């Protein structure tokens, strides 16, 4: 018995439960708090190993004050998701340092369960679910250790896993039948979405390059037929009209319930699975047809009525060859020609010179594209600092930039030449996952391109990046960069085996998203309709859920009774065996285990040694072994005892 009043194995189980519950939160905790939690766990481990005693309450109070102070210093308050989880992590680590009884141990495990639930405030993926299951199983093992005798960790963990598995039927019933809540179940107001990443409605040189260093999935697209060619895989996001000389931002964008264009040309039907990004744009392939419930902007963005705060699925049909903007308003065209006075003078002068030399708007466009090609501009994720006049420095000095530099300089040149133009941001390309056939678009596929307006043709997409790095369009970011060292590890082209592994995991994660996280009210309603329960109200669902839970409980009870009946039959046979030995003058003492009893009988009656040892060993294996009581083995033991008649 240690100084804490807990056995070493009990303390070890509590420390393991706390460590597993805290580990997934390390990336969300402030570094100082994460380090303190690790040190406190190590300290408690040393105490459990007999290298010290629990600290004085003054020390605990000082450490608690330090934790509160660090939380306030980091977040300025104690309420909300991030400060709340950080505070709980500190409390859990501190509670272990005063745990000296089973009662305190139960409080520690309660905090562990809170921390496991808190994982879902950040992510609800398959890996997080697996970590939560591991943490729950370990916590159940800790509860068993608090209430039972010392056992090997493997045996204890197996018992905990069996208890967890017994809850699976009820879990499935509640998952399938409990009324689904539209939107994120684990969301919190105010700060639930402060960590989502993605595009913004403004762009400063370097923004898209930084976003492209992330390997997070932005969305997936599952096409019904053939995939569009790479040159048409432009996923439209914010359209940026307004320029202040350094940054671009979105202009006015009126909404309508139907698109302003008549869809025509080649159609690409697909299902879009969009990750949460806390914005309204839906990042559809140019140009989506009419879809009920969605909104269509005058800049041809597909929009949602509310910010996308949970993963959504949309069935869409896009028509990339549709003419758009044929009847652009004078306000739109004026906005697409505006340039701040005095900004990027060399680029504006280039546009003016090309306008003077060109015959018409179409000729201006071709001359600007040719000029960009002649400059031998380099495509890089790590361009040199450009200064205030970014376009001038990019085109005439460094000649190195990422897609936003190309798009911005191109639009400025076109506007200076008198041709309406604007910047469009979104994603380009995507990687086909050969495992499940979905097109996966990551943040590293973020892209910026340009649109110009030509009389009689409307808005036309022009990608100036393609003029200098055509492999960016056909082969993605990794193919276009001369050195992919700045890319996310899993996006690098020289690690094919790692990409294969990523594809396998992505496909598995996609199935989890579709079948578990994607089980929404509509899918629940469709399932109930398939069961013959159409338009079920809450009373019907409650009755159905209660009935299913009752059936699950009845099956679990029958299973438990069957195991108890087998154990009773085994004990009856053992009792018969002991009575026959007692009748022969060899009674069993109350303290003797089966093996001890058999060993004593073997010493007193060597003639009975083989039979007694065989029966006692088999009984002990069936009664206490991990495999349970097999009917065939029980029958063999019963037959052996039936024919055992000592004299």
Please give the structural blueprint.
Elements: H1 8-22, H2 31-48, H3 57-75, H4 81-96, H5 102-118, H6 126-147, H7 153-166, H8 168-177, E1 202-203, H9 207-211, E2 217-223, E3 234-243, E4 248-250, E5 255-256, E6 268-274, E7 295-297, E8 302-303, E9 312-318, H10 330-335, H11 345-357, H12 361-374, E10 378-379, H13 390-398, E11 400-401, H14 403-416, E12 421-428, E13 431-432, E14 439-442, E15 446-454, E16 458-462, H15 464-468, H16 471-475, H17 477-480, H18 496-517, H19 521-530, H20 538-583, H21 594-604, H22 609-624, H23 631-642
Parallel strand pairs: 10-11
Antiparallel strand pairs: 1-4, 2-6, 2-14, 3-4, 3-12, 5-7, 6-9, 7-8, 12-15, 13-14, 15-16
Helix pairs in contact: 1-2, 1-4, 1-5, 1-6, 2-4, 3-4, 4-5, 5-6, 6-7, 8-20, 11-12, 11-14, 13-14, 20-22, 20-23, 21-22, 22-23
Q: How would you sum up this structure, described in words?
A:
- This protein is an alpha+beta fold and 647 residues long.
- It is 50% helix and 12% strand.
- It has a six-stranded antiparallel sheet. A five-stranded antiparallel sheet has the order 9-6-2-14-13, with no helix packed on it. It has a three-stranded antiparallel sheet with strand order 5-7-8, with no helix packed on it.
- The longest helix has 46 residues.
């Amino acid at each position: 018995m240690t100084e804490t009043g807990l056995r070493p194995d009990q303390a070890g189980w509590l420390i393991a439960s706390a460590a597993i519950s805290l580990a997934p939160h390390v990336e969300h905790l402030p570094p100082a708090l994460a380090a303190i939690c690790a040190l406190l766990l190590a300290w408690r481990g040393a105490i459990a190993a007999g290298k010290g005693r629990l600290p004085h309450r003054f020390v605990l109070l000082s450490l608690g004050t330090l934790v509160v102070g660090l939380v306030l210093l980091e977040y300025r308050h104690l309420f909300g998701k991030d400060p709340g989880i950080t505070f709980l992590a500190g409390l859990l680590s501190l509670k272990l340092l005063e745990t000296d009884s089973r009662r305190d141990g139960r409080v520690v495990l309660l905090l562990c369960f809170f921390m496991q639930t808190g994982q879902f405030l950040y992510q609800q993926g398959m890996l997080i679910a697996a970590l939560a299951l591991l943490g729950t199983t370990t916590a159940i093992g800790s509860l068993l250790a608090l209430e039972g005798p010392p056992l090997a960790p493997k045996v204890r963990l197996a018992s905990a896993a069996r208890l967890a598995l017994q809850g699976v039927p009820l879990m499935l019933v509640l998952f399938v039948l409990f009324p689904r809540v539209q939107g994120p179940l684990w969301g919190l107001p105010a700060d639930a979405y402060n960590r989502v990443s993605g595009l913004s409605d403004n762009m400063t040189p370097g923004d898209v390059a930084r976003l492209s260093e992330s390997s997070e999935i932005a969305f997936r697209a599952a096409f019904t037929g053939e995939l569009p060619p790479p040159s048409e895989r432009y996923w439209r996001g914010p359209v940026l009209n307004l320029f202040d000389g350094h940054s671009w931002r979105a202009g006015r964008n009126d909404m309508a319930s139907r698109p302003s264009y008549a869809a025509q040309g080649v159609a690409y039907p697909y299902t879009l699975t969009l990750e949460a990004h806390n914005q309204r744009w839906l990042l559809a392939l140019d140009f989506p047809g009419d879809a009920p419930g969605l909104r269509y902007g005058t800049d041809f963005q597909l929009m949602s009525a509310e910010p996308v705060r949970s993963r959504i699925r949309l069935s869409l049909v896009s028509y990339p060859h549709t003419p758009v903007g044929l009847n652009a308003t004078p306000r739109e065209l004026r906005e697409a020609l505006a340039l701040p006075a005095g900004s990027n003078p060399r680029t504006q002068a280039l546009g003016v010179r090309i306008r003077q030399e060109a015959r018409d708007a179409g000729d201006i466009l071709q001359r600007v594209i040719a000029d960009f090609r002649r400059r031998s501009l380099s495509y890089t994720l790590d361009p040199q600092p450009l200064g205030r006049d970014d376009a001038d420095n990019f085109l005439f000095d460094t000649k190195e930039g990422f897609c936003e530099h190309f798009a911005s300089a191109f639009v400025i040149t076109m506007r200076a030449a008198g041709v309406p133009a604007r910047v469009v941001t979104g994603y380009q390309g995507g990687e086909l996952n050969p495992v499940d056939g979905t097109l996966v678009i990551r943040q590293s596929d973020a892209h910026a391109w340009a649109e110009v307006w030509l009389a009689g043709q409307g808005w036309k997409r022009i990608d100036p990046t393609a003029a200098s790095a055509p492999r960016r369009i056909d082969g993605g970011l990794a193919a276009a960069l001369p050195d992919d060292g700045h890319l996310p590890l899993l996006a690098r082209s020289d690690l094919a085996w790692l990409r294969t592994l990523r594809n396998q995991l992505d496909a598995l994660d996609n199935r989890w998203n579709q079948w578990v996280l994607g089980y929404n009210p509509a899918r629940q309603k469709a399932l109930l309709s398939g069961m013959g329960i159409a338009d079920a109200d809450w009373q019907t669902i409650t009755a159905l859920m209660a009935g299913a839970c009752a059936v699950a409980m009845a099956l679990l009870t029958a299973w438990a009774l069957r195991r108890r009946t087998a154990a009773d039959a085994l004990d009856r046979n053992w009792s018969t065996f002991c009575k026959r030995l007692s009748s022969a003058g060899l009674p069993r003492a109350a303290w003797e285990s089966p093996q001890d009893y058999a060993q004593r009988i073997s010493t007193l009656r060597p003639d009975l040694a083989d039979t007694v040892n065989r029966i006692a060993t088999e009984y002990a294996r069936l009664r206490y072994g991990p495999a349970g009581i097999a009917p065939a083995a029980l029958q063999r033991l019963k037959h052996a005892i039936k024919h055992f008649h000592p004299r």
